[in-house]
Amino acid sequence: MSLPFLNQYIRTVWQPRRGLAIAEACIIGLVAALCAVCLKFGSGWLGTWRVHGSQVLPAWLFLPAVGLGFGFLAGLLVERLAPEASGSGIPHVKASLANIPVKLSWRVAIVKLLSAMIALASGITLGRQGPTVQVGAGLAAGMSRWVPTSPDHRRQMIAAGAGAGLAAAFNAPIAGVLFVVEELLQDLSGLTLGTAIIASFIGGVVSRLLGGRSLLLNLELTRSSSSFSIIEIPFYLVLGVLAGLLAALFNRGLIESIKIYRRLHISLPLRVALAGFISGIVIAFLPPSFRDNTGLREFVIAGQANAPIAVIAFLVQFLLTLVAFGSGAPGGLFAPSLILGSCLGYIVGVVEFQLFGLGSPTTYALAGMGAFFSAVSKVPITAIVIVFEMTTDFNLVLPLMIGSVTSYLVADKLMPGSLYTKLLHLSGINIENAPPVEGALTKLTAKDVMQRRVETLDAEMSVEEVVQAFSRSHHRGFPVVEQGKLVGIVTQTDLLKIRDRNLAKDTPLREIMTPQPVTVTPTHNLSNVLYLLDRHQISRLPVVEGRRIIGIITRADIIRAEADSLNCQTREHGPQPEPSYVVYQTRSPSIGRGRLLVPVANPETAATLLQMAAAIARDRHYEIECLQVILVSRQSSPAETPVRTAKSRRLLRNAEVLGKKWKIPVHTQIRVTHDIAHAILETIQERHIDLILMGWKGSTSTPGRIFGDVVDTVIRQATCEMVLVKLGKTQESIINNQKLSLLHLFPTPPLSHSPSPHLPIPPSPHLPLPPPQFNSWLVPMAGGPNARAAIKLLPALVTLGNDPKIRLTRVFKPSESEPDMKVLEEAIRMLVRRQKSSSTVVAAPVQADSVTEGVINLVKTEHYDVVVLGASREGLLQQAMKGNIPEAIASGVDSTVILVRGAINN
């Protein structure tokens, strides 16, 4: 698979699938393990050089010098390249996972790796396990930027990287998973556990293969000397209590150490250099075994140390860790905690052995490691598993559990809360007050705030038409469709290609559009949408359902939704009517690229409307949604009111028969409602309707209404494309002549019979529908966007007639010397390119004092069957095109009038 194709695939299918997450977790585990091995061998090689140098040169001079120089270099590297790499690194990872804007990247990971290697070689008493956790998390964060995933997925990958780092550092994959769940993410979802397990397993295995065991324990000695008996339980309880007390004191000392360093007001390099210098001086005057932290740990665990040496080691490690950690040196607390725990456990074991002669100091040392680690990091389960995985000794499980749980309870009582959370508080970061994950950005989905319908451009449009579309609109970009399927997006930036490439005016839009745009589905929450907008530096995202575009969402939509949430507002105002209730529905295979809604109210006009709908649906590859609405009293609930559906079902059956004839998917439904318009609007929203075709009387007697109550309400609130049809008298006469046949087709059931809406009805004999007399078409044009929408419909509608003739006209006043023909010429080019029948198309202007007068006179003179009007977007509800031109024309002519209004944005 080529890289460009892979990038295009990832951009198109952005939502992380399980396979992609697993593959990413595998890579993260491998890279984290390699970095852990590099850190181990790098710090080990430099540490060996330091120990060897202290044996050749005077230790009191060499060790402080190395500590001073290496400490300054490590601090300088962090300060100049990545300040986020200072300290343990685990608090930074925890803050990032809590949605705090803390930087995690490859640069932070690399700087952390190098600086930790140098800092540990300086001799400071910190460990490499904490830095490895941040290195793994930083690598995962950097890798997630390659793939346009969601924020939740990115957090899961960062957590998996952190777990892989810990697993690689300790060769303990189970502990890596538990640390993620117990301390970092606290998430038990399948994807989180799965990715953490895979990354930690690979990290642990690769680290073991390449680097050996991290603690280099003498396992044979450990196994042979470890033992446990019931009588020892009180001593393990005492060990747990002591570990808890001293760990609470240790944590308090760490915080105070940071505060003391800050009061010195010196730079990070100088602070780390000072810590290295102090550590070098102290260690230079101690036995040689203290110069190697790993060697000291083995020395204690193997039982080669006596009690006084263990006490000195505990005190020295305790104080020097406070000195080192407070400086901000890149190092962790895991290794010091294990050393302190082993010393404390060994001391308790020696005391117990001297008193009762039971047990083994080595067992107590190992149990003390888990107890002190548990009390410092507040992760008892992880502590138990880490020590068990390092030793694989089942005899240690019960002592580890007693000591770790007891120390955790004592430490948490004395100093509640996580140490890492308190360290973040010192940096001014409060993850407890972090932006809630359950905010508006995660509760709301793209469906809730998207603009449900958006202007689209056809892929076959010429670049000249595209430029004109941009000039007429305030939008800076349009989705591009081909046969109803989203194939690209075009923005103002893409228009520069016309000039740069010297493209001809008739070049199709597909040559300059951006193909395969990033999309979202209606169910994606706003945080995912916002992440994608920022990830690709774009301002809008098409919302798709399958292969259909059902809306668009912009940054402004998200900002408006967030502002509404902060102000406790919603987009719904006033009392809302009770929802309509679906009592009957049928579904066909959903194989279309859009949906066309036909509210069927009058059996006498349903035949013609359905034929028109079928013509449009076949041309655009749409599905037809047929709706029958049953009105009930507002005193009764639509869901509880019994209704008779037999007549309505027979009417819808006729639509299904027509769909089978034209091979068009037809869905039907019957809704019970208090308000017809509200039921239609609910259907438009629930079924993602692209176009609605409604019957229209041509006039209304309702005061303040242009088209009538129902149509006016739908026009005002529905953003999809609309087609209103007022049938002419010629067509009505044909319908009246066949009225008896239609009544035979739709007989009224007896009043005593009320069939269940779920019982099948025998199919009625199908009567051929009366063919509409649509042979001559008049299309007045003024250049508005809805005129273009009307032109797009004509190729489908004219197929209803025989040898259709189309006249495009423009009304100009007598005061004008000559009419502007550009609009008509552009319309002819568009119509000729789109039409599929051999219809005759002419363009001729007409002179008149007003549009209404010119069109009515032309229809009466030349007897046009159909008049197609493109309503102006603004005037449709403000007396509709300067004085309600559509109603005036519809009332003044006997022909069929079709009013087209394009889709509009919310």
Automatic annotation (TrEMBL):
Domain (CBS) ranges:
450-507, 513-570
GO cellular component terms, alphabetically, are: plasma membrane
Domain of life of the native organism: Bacteria
Keywords, in A-Z order:
CBS domain, Chloride, Ion transport, Membrane, Transmembrane, Transmembrane helix, Transport
Q: Which InterPro entries match?
A: CBS_dom (IPR000644), CBS_dom_sf (IPR046342), Cl-channel_core (IPR014743), ClC (IPR001807), Rossmann-like_a/b/a_fold (IPR014729), UspA (IPR006016)
* Membrane topology classification: Multi-pass membrane protein
- Transmembrane domains' residue ranges: 21-45, 57-78, 104-126, 157-181, 188-210, 230-250, 270-287, 307-326, 338-358, 364-387, 394-411
Compartment list: Membrane
Name any one GO molecular function: voltage-gated chloride channel activity
PANTHER family from the xrefs?
Answer: CHLORIDE CHANNEL PROTEIN
What is the protein name stated in its UniProt record? Chloride channel protein
What is the native source organism of this protein?
A: Fischerella muscicola CCMEE 5323
